[in-house]
Design goal:
By secondary structure, this protein is α+β, with helices and mostly antiparallel strands. The protein has two domains: about 55 residues, Alpha-Beta Plaits; about 150 residues, Leucyl/phenylalanyl-tRNA-protein transferase, C-terminal domain (Aminopeptidase), CATH 3.40.630. A hairpin with a 2-residue loop joins strand 8 and strand 9. The longest helix has 15 residues. The chain is globular and about 55 Å long.
Length: about 220
């Protein structure tokens, strides 16, 4: 499959035209308008800092159905420990910057300052959200993502204390069940997500869920 070069038009090719590894298009800007259009069509940006924007829609999509979130016995014990508190949308800026730093420390990051600016704008629009784990009043972990209808598109997470991001994900799943969300989009699978209950579905099944989600707009998630 060819890799499509984007121009000023925010339109994308259909996700089914992506390459075998899921790369669909290259280029374009990271405007909030383009990013929103991408997510609504099952496409997300992911690239190294020195590269032009790369836009993906993998043939197998990692998802976590909130009711399938797996909580181990050790995690149950961790959740019961005094000192933990989980909040929503109280410090989006700190969460996304900690996510950026955790990726830099690991293997480089796609969360550039431009990325932060755009997702902060989406947060101000009520589309991007953060989940924060505090321990004894200190921010120790969390995650952020975007909501479309009854789908939560997870972007990144971080932990400064063992299990802090898992606690954020568990509390998010509980809130999504309460609000009757269908699924958390995890984009690409990894052992951490699998341990929490994530699994892969086909691109076609994910696009169907995403299309249906537009009919189920949720208000006041947090």
């Amino acid at each position: 499959m060819p890799i499509y070069a984007l121009n000023d038009d925010i339109a994308f090719p259909h996700p089914s035209l992506a390459s075998a590894d899921g790369l669909l298009a290259v280029g374009g800007d990271l405007s909030s308008k383009r990013v929103l259009h991408a997510y609504k069509n099952g496409i997300f940006p992911w690239f190294n800092e020195e590269d032009p924007p790369l836009w993906w829609s993998p043939p197998q999509r990692a998802v976590l159905f909130p009711e399938e979130t797996r909580i181990s016995k050790s995690m149950m014990q961790e959740l019961r420990k005094p000192g933990y508190e989980v909040k929503f949308n109280t410090d989006f800026n700190s969460v996304i910057k900690h996510c950026q730093q955790s990726r830099i420390d690991a293997e480089g990051t796609w969360i550039t300052q431009e990325f932060i600016d755009v997702y902060t704008q989406l947060h101000e629009m009520g589309i991007a959200h953060s989940v924060e784990t505090y321990y004894e009043g200190e921010l120790v972990g969390g995650l952020y993502g975007l909501t479309f209808g009854d789908v939560f598109c997870g972007e990144s997470m971080f932990s400064l204390r063992s299990n802090a991001s898992k606690i954020a994900l568990i509390r998010l799943s509980e809130r999504l069940i309460e609000k009757e969300f269908q699924v958390i989009d995890c984009q690409i699978t990894n052992p951490h997500l699998v341990s929490m209950g994530a699994r892969e579905i086909t691109r076609e099944d994910f696009l169907t869920i995403l299309h249906d989600s537009s009919k189920n707009k949720k208000e006041n998630l947090f």
